[in-house]
Structures are given as C-alpha cells and as structure tokens.
Amino acid sequence: MALQVSLSTFARIALISVDSAFLGHLGTSSLAAASLASTWTNVPLAGVWSGATALITLCGQAWGAKNGELSGIWLQIGLVVVTVLSVPVMIWYWSIGYVLEVSTDDAEVVQLGVRFARILSLSIWPSLVYACVRLYFQSMGIMSPVTVVGTLSIGVACAANYMLIFGAFGWGGLGFDGSPMATVIASWFQPVSLISYCIFYKKMHLQAWGGWDLSAFTPDRLKIFMNIAGPVAANSMVSNLANSALTLVAAKLGSDVIAANAVISGLWSLLWALFWLCMLVQPIFITGYMIESLEILTSSVLAAMGEVAVTAWVSSLSVWFIELPIAYFGGVTMGLGFSALWYGVCTMEVLKLATFSFVLSRTDWTEMAERAVKNMEATSDSDTGVEQESLQFAMTEGGNTPGSLAPVVRSPAAQELMTPSGRRRQWDQIEDGTLLRSPFFGRTPRSDTSFSQA
C-alpha cells in the first residue's frame, strides 16, 4: 500500500519535472522562464490543492465509521469548492507578467514565462478535480488505479513534450509552447482516465456514494471542511509565497542560478552548463530533504488529527522568519551565494521537526479520537458500539496516517483494541467495582474468586 502511495505521489510530482527535462535542451532562458513562472503560479494553485487534502481526513474518517455516503458528500463539497476557487487561480495565471517583471530584468525570461503560465492555466481545473477524486479513492484504500493512471501520465507527458516541442513525422513542433501544452494534455488525461475506469467502468464509487444532493451542503459540514482545509491552504500559500520570494534572491544571483535551482529542486541534472552550480548545493540538498522527510511524517500525523492550525502557523512563521532571512543575508549580503538558499531550508526544517515532535509528545490522544468521532457522523442502533469502533479506528489508524499521502483502509469490526480511549472507557465504567478491569476477561461480573486470585 505504501509503495502504491509513493508511486502515485511520485507520478504527480514527475509531471512538473518532465517539463524541466525537455526545456533544458532549449537553453537556460527557457528553463529559467518555466521555473520562474511555475514558482509564482504555484502559490494559489498549491493552496487550493493543499486545501483539497482535507478529503483524505474527512473521507477516511467517514469510511472508517462505515458511513460511505458521507464520504461521497465530502467529495461533492470538495469538487464544488475547488471548482469555484479555480476561477481566481486562472486570473492569477493570466496576470503573472506583473510579478515576473519584478522578479527579473531579463525581458526574454519574462516573455517566455507569461506564455508558459497562460497556456498552463488550461490545466488548473482538471488537476484539482483529479486531486479530489484521487484522495477520495485513496481514503477507501483504492490505490492501484491511481498508481497506474499516474504512471501512464508520465509517459503521456514525455511523449507529448517530445512531439509538441521538437515535432514528429515531418512536423517541426511548437518549440517552447509545446511544453506547457504537453502538461495540459497530461493533466486532462489523469482525471478522465481515473473517472472512466473507477466510476463508469468498475463502479467503485457506489460503495461510498449516495448521488448528488445539494441539501447535503449544510453549514455545519462546510464549517468542518473549511476548518481543516482553510489552515492547510493558507499555510501552503504562505509557504509557497515565501519560496517564490526566495527566487527573488536567486534572481539577483543571475538567470543561471534560477535555472540551476530548478534543476536541483526537480532532481534533474540535464544541462552540463549548470552541472557545477548543482554540485555546489547537492550535499546540503540531500541533508535538507532527509530532515524534511521526518518533518513531513510528523506534520502529516498532526494534519490527520485535524491539528492543521499548528502546522500552518509553524510552517508560515519558519519560512518567513528563518528561511528567507538566512537566504537573503547569507546569499546576497554576506556573499555566500547559491548554497545559502539551502542552508536556510535545512535550518527551517530542523526547527519545524522539533516543534511538531514536541506538540505530538503533548497530544491528548483521547480528545483527538473524540473529535474524529464527531466528524464521522456515525449512526447505529448501538451508539456505544459505534463510538467504540470509531475510536479504535481513529486511534489505531487515523493517528498514524499521513494526512496528504497515505490511504485509509477500513478496519475490521473485530475484538476490542486496547487503545488509550478504550482503557479509559473501561475504567470509567468500573464505578462500583462490578466489572473486571483486565481486557482479557471482557465485561464479566467480578466474582469473589477473582478477588482472591488477584
């Protein structure tokens, strides 16, 4: 399961890197323009995209409580929200020229960047729809189709990039414009393929879908969705805005540094002219990503519990008050150059990891489980039984599930698991000493022999 999640995530990220791979052959200006445009257009898009990850928490909790219809309702809410928000995101894409002019004095980079962003705007809505549908199926443990579609989309992106940039069968191609157009094709391929296979062909959605129902869009549900999605989206936008501002520091060091930063960030070492610039930061880059991997794990646990406010504030403040100052004063003022940018990243990730670990160590897991039960909207003839099962699910799986990456699988309704909340419930019910406290004896009356044996 973890392998499938990793492959699907890799496939999603690879689409961005494919553009860099092909544009690198067109020259430094083309790669720098695409990198700079992607950096600034990514600010609002990543915000909406990150907000959609609330579905993995909400759909996963509903699915764990055997409330499949509620999972479908959360998907509907997510689709409507991202569709509405895609309009201002598209407006931002078409207005990117003003920001690029501030970022660099290179007129060619600005011109190419504007063209890149405007063509790429056609991929906004399908990519957001795919994110929602992908997370919806992921919350039910359906990962194989997502992995296959993601892997195939890499091949589609590579083939489209080659044909549209360089041409084929006697056609000369579109050149630079072919790269964003290829990304648009791959972005539409993903939702169309996934929906066609999982929904229209296999009908996998029927186990967690009650049909479109506008009456399900209640204020309480919208509030729950926004309470989780809002801080995550805001954190993503603020963090990406800071990273975009970081490119201003790179721009002051030259267009070659902009392009080199795009290469090292995407793990593409394709331009021999930029080879030595990439090697300057490779050790720092590896160290930073090792620390970030642990930070992502801890922040995902917090996000899965709905503690998105913690991750939002810590990430935002650390980016603006640690990463950016170190990058600017180190890279520009002190003259440390390109490496200062990644020293700032390493320092920021260490602080975030320490903070998230401290918060997790002070977490009241019982309170987190009760909050998850409330969001599940579970109903049953036995409220105690459903609450107990829901708490078990939340504690044994929900708290250990990365909020934006890992799937949530239905727990079997088997024997009671001795979670902290389960122990607390057993002790709370022993008010008169009539029940055994040991979980191995169940809920049998306490006998005199049990006292003597004790």
From TrEMBL:
The chain crosses the membrane at residues 44-65, 77-96, 116-137, 149-169, 181-201, 258-281, 326-345. Signal peptide: none annotated. It comes from the Eukaryota. One of its GO terms (cellular component) is membrane. GO terms for molecular function: antiporter activity; xenobiotic transmembrane transporter activity. InterPro entries: MATE_fam. Keywords: Membrane, Transmembrane, Transmembrane helix. Belongs to the multi antimicrobial extrusion (MATE) (TC 2.A.66.1) family. This is Arrestin domain-containing protein A. It comes from Phytophthora nicotianae (Potato buckeye rot agent). The lineage of its organism: Eukaryota, Sar, Stramenopiles, Oomycota, Peronosporomycetes.
